Amino acid sequence: MTRNSSLPLAAPLPLVLGGHAVPTLHNATLVDGRIVDVHIVGGRVYDVVPAQGLVPSEDDLDLTGFLLLTAPAEPHAHLDKALSFDEIRPPAGDLGSAIETWENHTPSLTVESIAERARRAALLLLGNGTTAVRSHVNLLRGDQPLRGIQALVKVREELSSVMDIQLVAMTPYVVGDEAVHAALDLGVDFLGGHPHQTPDPSGNLQRLLAIARDRRVGVDMHTDEQTNPTMLTLEELAHSVRDWPSSMPVTAGHCVSLGMVTPEVLARVIEAVKESNVGIVSLPITNLYLQGWDTPVAMPRGLTAARALIDAGVRFGAGADNVRDPYNPLGRSDALETAMLLVTAGHLSVEEAYRAVSDGARDVMSLPKS
Fold it and tell me: Is 140 in the same domain as 225?
């Protein structure tokens, strides 16, 4: 709910304000200019009708002058890393330096310290209207690889009454299968990794997909997070999951290389993605920060091919990715920040950008549309 906004409304969401169900929202403005009353039954939007001009009762809410929006969702977060910038004080740099900085810091992490930051980060999202989040959680190097998973499972349970939290086991190349299975046993929802950053991208991708098939879970892969147009594990991913059931949804995040290829290659890869129903997640703030450090002139935008993906009807969402950690020193945990960057850097319309962080994000997350 925002005043004087021009962002769009999609279909209704479950709505609870101040911990209590609101029977009727009077005189709310929709993006098309209609003034409506919204009836709430059992904590969910039941009906949207033209405003009756009635004076709200004590139990109702008067939204005169406010625009009613669907709640945003965050399809790609790293709650285990979030808000660690101040304790690490990382140097500015590209993806490689961010990974190195984080890896050097992980021996000091405890379940409690990860949970404390993750809880604060999740509540920042919730405070800005985000009611669902999918967080990648690193399996850590060493003899205690599940610290992050244990912390986020705890936070997910603590916040389950106010927020949907999905967890992805992000699996480094050096972490063995035993730890992956242990993470899934703890209740992780999806399997993930970053094959393009390993010595054997195809082999690593197929290893993770094999575990996911065995455990009957979906996957959410960091995919081609670089400006090298020849790195297209997205295409292999799409071909590999073509026959997967809808109960094992597949998501590819970043897909930066796709924004650097020729039109012919772009069309070919998008066709494979669409045929396999792979959801794509763009992450503008972190990719704009991390990509292009080695290109001082005509620096690439470091974004996926958002325009082409949307025009082709691919399932498309967008998120913030990292927030105030070695991978991105900034961020307010506000979906409007992501939407703004999709407009300014990705040349999407305002309506397309907000859909990417609301209904589009929920679609990619396999959640009911709002």
Answer: yes
